[in-house]
Amino acid sequence: MKKYLLSCIMLLSILSAGAQNNGDIVKVGDTMPTFTIVSDDGTQLRSSSLKGKVVLVNFFATWCPPCQKELAEIQSTLWPKYKDNDKFKLLVIGREHSDSELAKYNEKKGFAFPLYPDKNRAVYGAFATSLIPRSYLIGKNGKVIAATSGYTEEEFAGLMKEIEDALK
Q1: Which of 108-117's residues contact partners 24+ apart within 8 Å by CB, and which partners?
Q2: Omega before residue 133 within 30° of 0, cis
Q3: According to the model, what pLDDT value does residue 17 have?
Q4: Cβ neighbours of residue 98 under 8 Å, at least 6 residues apart?
Q5: Residue 79 vs residues 17, 23, 25, 72, 111: alpha-carbon distances, Å
Q6: Is the pLDDT of residue 82 over 50?
Q7: What is the pLDDT at residue 8?
Q8: What is the model's pLDDT at position 22?
């Protein structure tokens, strides 16, 4: 009986720990990982070029329904408000997508903001292990000030407030 009870307690502990793991490698307070986004044509965007800016890194996939809702909200709310702010950078990164796949996807969706490829999860893998959509807000000092996974209107509104505060 003691062995059975001990086994149950251990199993519950393992399951509880797993339920709390949302796939984050990078957490609030951490420094943004170093990464390079490489486009199909070889052009590169290095994280080091973002120093001193407020950066929203958003990971999505074209097949992900919650991602579609979040991208629509970025298009209608976030992008119009911050697209001309030179202290802000939006990186919407297609996990496991190439430039050509993203271009074809954007022909259907008509997003005004740029989409960046991450064919091999190289950038995504520096931030997380699982779950999309996923966003990380980086402050001017290079530290993560907010991290979200999944999409809800309330969480997105909170992210908008965090961006506003970080740009002050």
Answers
A1: 109/71, 111/71, 111/74, 111/75, 111/79, 112/75, 112/79, 112/83, 113/74, 113/75, 113/79, 113/83, 114/90, 116/37, 116/39, 116/45, 116/91, 116/92, 117/37, 117/38, 117/39, 117/40, 117/93
A2: yes
A3: 39
A4: 40, 117, 119
A5: 37, 27, 27, 10, 10
A6: yes
A7: 38
A8: 82
pLDDT per residue as tens digits for the range 84-109:
999 999 999 999 999 999 999 999 99
Query: Is 60 exposed, middle or buried, given 0-12, 13-18 or 19+ CB atoms closer than 10 A?
Result: buried
Band (24; pLDDT cuts 50, 70, 90) = confident
Q: Answer yes or no: are the C-beta atoms of 57 and 25 closer than 8 Å.
A: no
Ramachandran angles phi, psi of 145, nearest 5°: -110, -10
